[in-house]
Amino acid sequence: MTATNGDPHGSSYGALTADDVARIRMDFPVLDQLINGKPLVYLDNAATTQKPRPVIDAISNYYLHNNANVHRGVHTLSQRATDDYEVGREAIRRFINAPDSSEIIYVRGTTEGLNLVASSYGRKFFKAGDEVIITGMEHHSNIVPWQILGKEIGIRLRVIPFTDQGELLMDEYESMLNERTRLVSVVHQSNALGTINPVSSIVEMAHARGIPVMIDAAQSIPHMPVDVQAMGADFLTFSGHKMYGPTGIGVLWGRADLLNEMPPYQSGGEMIRSVTYEETIYNVIPHKFEAGTPDIAGAIGLGAAVEYLEAIGMDRIAAYEQALMRYGAERLAEIEGVRLIGTAENRGGVLSFYMESAHAHDIGTILDAEGIAVRTGHHCAQPVMARYEIPATVRASLSFYNTTEEIDALIKGIDRVIEVFG
Ligand code: 7TS
């Protein structure tokens, strides 16, 4: 049974129950396998999540029955493909409570969403001496595009510092806002620390000075309700593959008035209204930013992922994952030699830890032998590792399909690491 065929996974309020989770797990065929002779314990959800059957079915249904290019043909298959592609866009609009579906731009993922804004908005509106504010806990994809722009046109990157716990110093942020600030671009939930940043306050303080705010929601949107209007953001971006959808598709949402003022990011087919050798008139949003044949199957799969999440309920997902994270943090705190990195009061389902006695990659290898998948390394957030003066962490990142038994398996796996490395 799946979340979209009438099974609401139990009651529609409160955290998920163990029965709900057992039923949900049946929607994810990949979870049911042995790795190195042990049941797979998948705790690398911040890197990418697994895909439920309704998502896989929506993609295969498109290829089996409706495959055609979109927005081009009068023939039936093309109309079906276009309808499904646009149904996906409307599902995403609803999911993030955007005012209009023309503000939903399909991109490759968060990385492309950030690059699009840096390249299009940045090149048009920034000049030498202008400043962009980010946090000290950004993924590289919210650092490097601004640095490249900095080299090109001379903008300066300002970085909000954070405490040892992993909480932003909001006074420092306030003191950075000035007449040279052109954009604030911040991560909603840190992939390396789990910190959930106070984005509404960040937006409010920037807007008080007329400064727009971009939110990297890659790690928040799979785990909590995200409402762009309640948040007050101006741009928001996320990846399909981290929210139970396929790889290769993601979303940039932007306020229509900003998107309308921005030049195209890429050019070619689809993004034009008319072309002569003398002049090209651009298409309206969102098409202006969707040059070329898009990832049609990806958009359809992402639409199905959104419907799947809605059927379970983002509030229930958040409540369940919070409880699981607290349980894991408590269990990890009991182990001598394990240091949890990222202990902000408000944080999501990320358990990042460091052990003096063993390198993160060795820990990851031992855990893999036990069937446990975690990510080890700098998590594309090298400045965060530098902040704690460590080379890498082991990161267990949670989903609503994970269980307390799986956390217990992780703890047993760490006991095994201690047996080997002391
Ligand atoms: N922003 C954040 C906060 C992320 O966690 C990631 C990916 C990205 C942006 C980039 O997303 P992409 O889909 O465009 O690659 N983070 C991770 C991670 O933590 N482990 O693998 C990828």
Can you give me a brief rundown of this structure?
The protein is an alpha/beta fold and 422 residues long. 40% of the residues lie in helices and 16% in strands.
Question: How many structural domains in the coordinates?
Answer: 2
What's the end-to-end separation, in Å? 45 Å
Oligomer: single chain
Q: Report strand order across the widest sheet.
A: 4-10-9-8-7-5-6
How many alpha or pi helices? 14
The small-molecule ligands in this entry are:
ligand 7TS
The CATH topology label of the largest domain is: Aspartate Aminotransferase, domain 2
- The coarse overall form would be globular
- According to DSSP, the number of beta strands is 17
User: What is the CATH architecture term of the largest domain?
Assistant: 3-Layer(aba) Sandwich
**Main sheet: strands, sense, barrel:** 7 strands, mixed
Helix content percent band = 25-40%
CATH class of the largest domain: Alpha Beta
The average pLDDT value, as a whole number, equals 95
| Strand residue content | 15-25%
Low-confidence stretches: 1-12
Question: Over all CA atoms, what is the radius of gyration?
Answer: 22 Å
Short key terms for the protein model shown above:
422 residues; alpha/beta; Aspartate Aminotransferase, domain 1; Aspartate Aminotransferase, domain 2; 2 domains; seven-stranded mixed beta sheet; four-stranded antiparallel beta sheet; 17 strands; 40% helix; globular; disordered N terminus; binds ligand 7TS
